[in-house]
């Protein structure tokens, strides 16, 4: 089945799919690079970069393009520079908000490639697109390296494919409407040929995974609300820092773009804070509802919104992941199928035993899924600034995952237990 019928002109050969993939994702790479180069060029024309010619500015733009794709940069600071380390440091903190730019550009390219491909030919377009992106990443890593910054060619070729590949797949799936039209495999037909017990087990596992996604989505949503509230309440302090910096219109605009790009990272750090594990703003520092120890911080305006002063009731935020688990348990009651509880009831007739055990195990399973996803979210939002003590920024993935897993598990048990009363309709 062809996803889209292109009009054919007599005597004109259609563009090969691999070449169309090259063009589509090449456009995405160029547009995302322009969004990095244009602000830097504006700062350069405003004399914001001292002793930097246009060639070095182009290298800086390539480094920025690779960084928003998640490629780590190895920094070698001159001896005597403030914050210089004995060994080369790694800059691995990348702004997740700016990473959405190549993702959505690739999403658009994936939709267009799906429109132009037959079901069994889409791989040709994807292969040409991803191959082109890998070559461009390799070229950017090669030409952007200099005496102060070195970039692995392998990392430059492969890591940008994560954001671009996800965008391509999501966009192609969105255009196709189903996996069978996208890859030619009917998962529903394959599942229907399995045994009834396998379908029940698969349905239970799939419902648990989706409930875990609901739990971590709610927890991240609460963290985003906390970040928004902190920015709103500290707006005067943030403006004061901007005034003291006096970076000018262009410099202030670029700084704001960087801060906006880091907002998803701050949400990940806030997730660590609400879990109780806290997050770090430099080696030896910790910010959590239970303990706060912070050293000197850079003059970044958004850091004025950090929690400070008396936080006697800060531990109340630990209830937010629990409430997220309550939503996950309630969702499972409404949308999921607890086939494990049914199977356990058939094996053991004592309902007073099977109901609590199945609910407790449900909470553990859902909490485990949410904890793994929380650890992944914190991992990609944290990193190293590569300068001085700021080589440790963000929350700890292991402890954040453990805390979130435990809190969501408790909330899931409560939500699944009280769900029947929440679902009860009043009789006339």
Number of strands: 7
State the order of secondary-structure elements, H for helix, E for strand: HHEEHHEHHHHHHHEEEHHHEH
Q: Describe the main β-sheet briefly.
A: 3 strands, antiparallel
Structural class: mainly alpha
Please list the strands of the largest sheet in the order they lie side by side.
Answer: 2-1-3
The helical percent reads 55-70%
The total number of structural domains is 2
Strand and helix layout:
Layout: H1 17-45, H2 54-68, E1 73-75, E2 89-91, H3 96-115, H4 122-144, E3 149-150, H5 153-158, H6 160-176, H7 179-183, H8 187-192, H9 196-233, H10 235-245, H11 248-275, E4 279-281, E5 286-287, E6 292-293, H12 319-335, H13 339-347, H14 351-381, E7 393-395, H15 397-423
Antiparallel strand pairs: 1-2, 1-3, 4-7, 5-6
Helix pairs in contact: 1-2, 1-3, 1-4, 2-4, 3-6, 3-11, 4-6, 9-11, 9-12, 9-14, 11-14, 12-15, 13-14, 14-15
Task: Explain the overall architecture.
- The chain has helices at residues 17-45, 54-68, 96-115, 122-144, 153-158, 160-176, 179-183, 187-192, 196-233, 235-245, 248-275, 319-335, 339-347, 351-381, 397-423; strands at residues 73-75, 89-91, 149-150, 279-281, 286-287, 292-293, 393-395.
- The protein is mainly α and 428 residues long.
- It has two domains: 17-190, no CATH class; 194-421, no CATH class.
- Helix 14 (351-381) crosses helix 15.
- It is flat, with a radius of gyration of 25 Å.
- Residues 1-5 have low confidence and may be disordered.
- Keywords: Membrane, Transmembrane, Transmembrane helix.
- Pfam families: DUF6350.
């Amino acid at each position: 089945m062809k996803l889209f019928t292109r009009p054919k002109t007599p005597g004109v050969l259609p563009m090969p799919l691999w070449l169309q993939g090259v063009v589509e994702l090449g456009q995405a790479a160029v547009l995302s690079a322009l969004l990095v180069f244009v602000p830097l060029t504006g700062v350069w024309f405003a004399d914001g970069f001292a002793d930097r010619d246009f060639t070095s500015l182009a290298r800086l733009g390539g480094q920025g393009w690779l960084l928003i794709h998640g490629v780590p940069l190895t920094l070698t600071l001159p001896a005597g520079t403030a914050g210089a380390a004995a060994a080369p440091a790694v800059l691995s903190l990348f702004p997740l908000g700016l990473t959405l730019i190549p993702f959505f550009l690739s999403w658009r390219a994936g939709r267009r490639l799906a429109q132009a491909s037959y079901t069994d030919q889409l791989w040709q377009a994807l292969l040409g697109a991803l191959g082109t992106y890998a070559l461009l990443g390799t070229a950017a890593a090669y030409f952007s390296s200099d005496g102060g910054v070195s970039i692995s060619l392998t990392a430059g070729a492969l890591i940008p494919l994560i954001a671009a590949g996800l965008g391509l797949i999501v966009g192609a799936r969105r255009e196709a409407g189903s996996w069978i039209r996208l890859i030619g495999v009917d998962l529903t037909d394959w599942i229907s040929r399995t045994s009834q017990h396998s379908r029940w087990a698969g349905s239970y596992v799939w419902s648990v995974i989706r409930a875990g996604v609901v739990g971590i989505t709610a927890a991240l949503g609460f963290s985003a609300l906390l970040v928004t509230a902190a920015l709103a309440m500290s707006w005067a302090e943030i403006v004061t820092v901007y005034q003291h910096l006096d970076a000018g219109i262009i410099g202030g605009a670029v700084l704001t773009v960087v801060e906006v790009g880091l907002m998803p990272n701050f949400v990940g750090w806030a997730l660590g804070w609400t879990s109780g594990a806290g997050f770090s703003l430099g080696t030896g520092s910790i910010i959590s509802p239970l303990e706060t120890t912070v050293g000197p911080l850079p003059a970044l305006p958004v850091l004025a919104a950090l929690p400070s002063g008396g936080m006697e009731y800060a531990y109340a935020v630990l209830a937010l992941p629990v409430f997220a688990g309550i939503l996950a348990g309630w969702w499972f009651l409404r949308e999921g199928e607890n086939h494990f509880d049914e199977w356990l009831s058939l094996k053991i007739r004592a309902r007073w035993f099977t109901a609590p055990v199945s609910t407790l195990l449900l909470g553990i399973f859902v909490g485990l899924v949410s904890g793994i996803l929380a650890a992944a979210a914190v991992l990609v939002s944290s990193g190293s600034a590569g300068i001085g003590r700021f080589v440790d920024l963000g929350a700890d993935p292991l402890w954040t995952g453990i805390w979130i897993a435990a809190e969501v598990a408790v909330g899931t048990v409560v939500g699944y237990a009280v769900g029947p009363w929440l679902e009860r309709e009043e009789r006339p």
